[in-house]
Model the fold of this input.
Amino acid sequence: MAYPFAMAIYYSLSSSVIGRGGGFVGLANFQALLADGTFRQTLQNSIVFTTVAVTVKTVLGVMLALILYRRLRLKRLVRGLVLLPFVIPTALSTLGWLWMYDSLYSVITWTLNRVLLAPLGLGPLEVNWLGSPTLAMAAVIVVNIWRGLPFFAVTVLAGLTAIPTEFYEAAAVDGAGRWGRFWYVTYPLLRPVLAVVVLFSTIFTFADFNIVYVLTRGGPQESTHLFATLSHALAFESLQLGRGAAVSLFMFPVLVAVVVLQLHYLQREETRHA
Amino acid sequence: MPRRAGLRDHVGLVPYLFFILFPIYFMVLTAFKTDRELYDLQAIPFWIRDGVSLEHFRHLFFKTNFPRWLANSLVVASLTMAISVAISILAAYSLARLRFPGARTFGIAVFITYLVPPTLLFLPLTQIVTWLGLIDSLGALVLTYPTFLIPFCTWLLLGYFKTVPREIEECALVDGCGRLGILFRIVIPVAVPGIVCAMLFAFTLAWNEFLYALTFTNASVTKTVTVGMAAEMIRGDVFHWGGIMAGAVAGALPVVIMYVFFMDYYVVGLTAGSVKG
Done:
């Protein structure tokens, strides 16, 4: 008896949400958006933000996982520390970054001036990290990388641990060097895990809200707006609820495309290995 | 056995650890500095010169709504954790064991819901919350958080329940135990680690949630820690960085403490979603 009841509750929760979402958006809203400059800017921002952040996270994540895989000193402590950015609430840690990017008291600018430029006799530089479109985008991406790196490192590490060490031994016998072992053993066996991790990260990076909201609110000149922040701004600052909903729903086809692509890729991988 | 790490690996780790830890170190440092030192451009920002000060924490706890926000977060996270994990146990068990029409489809549906980011749903949810008259109450959060917690916990537990051998359950069935009896007397005790993991994740995700809390609450007294800090302390032109960092540190502390004690569960939960999938 408890079971169908639970199912009913659960079902009502998830489907009602999606059902209502489809209720108040027509295609007209989408067309209007496509003609809108801010929206196109947001689309471009989202693509840049997602591509750069996910690529860097993948590369750094794999490299970090490869180090963590070795038998390190204080291994547990190191692994524990690496996961911290994931555990700390993003909204709160981003406040820390906001302070580090402060236009006057930025510790990054301070270090740049005092440690790097002053010894070279170069004058103090004033950098407003969140003030120019390019810098602001870079700043937002850095925070996203900081936040997402632990997820990559830890999941890739789990993938690495699943690779039988005999493979490496065999490769070593065949005369494979450091690179050879990575390229012919690690990488092919890691690919399915990587595909899933990249899928997850692409979706959640693309749909990111917290970092941009706290750091820039989409500015300067809409240069860091993502779908989620634009949708929030339209709905609650300009009170155009329908527009905002259309923007957020615009994420849906893009996400579906990503999921389908990834699943397709995974399936092909599976049939190739079978 | 993986290779023992050499000096090169340890050196290679340094930039990563610096990148990961410096922001955290700097937040903690700022929270304990005096305002005079914070805004002194001659002071070296990497350590505390004028002595540790608790003024920001004192201000935060006695002059702002911060304690209220902490309490709100605690209530919402605990309640949603309990609700979500309870429902997820039932859902995951039935998906793992019972054969009913559409079970497979339902399993896939859970996975897909898990992939739908909250940022896609917050506007329709606003409508629902408004219809129910829950806007600006903690009830709104207790109702909406399970929408992303249940798919996650169900997915996590599903993998766990599948590892419980069917034979034990069949023995119990033969001995006259009902389905629910099996669930409570056999499956749940065996799956305790998985359930603890789901509880930890549910609590952490609920505690860290920002968008729904930002959207569904307006009054200061109904805010959670994340929203209270990010939306209320960042206001106007003058930022009180010491206070903001003190709040960020204090607001993150509960989940960090939990994490320190249950680190291994977090690793399991984090990898379960992607590696098993």
Q: What stands out?
A: Chain B touches chain A through 88 residues (CB under 8 Å). Chain B has a mean pLDDT of 86.
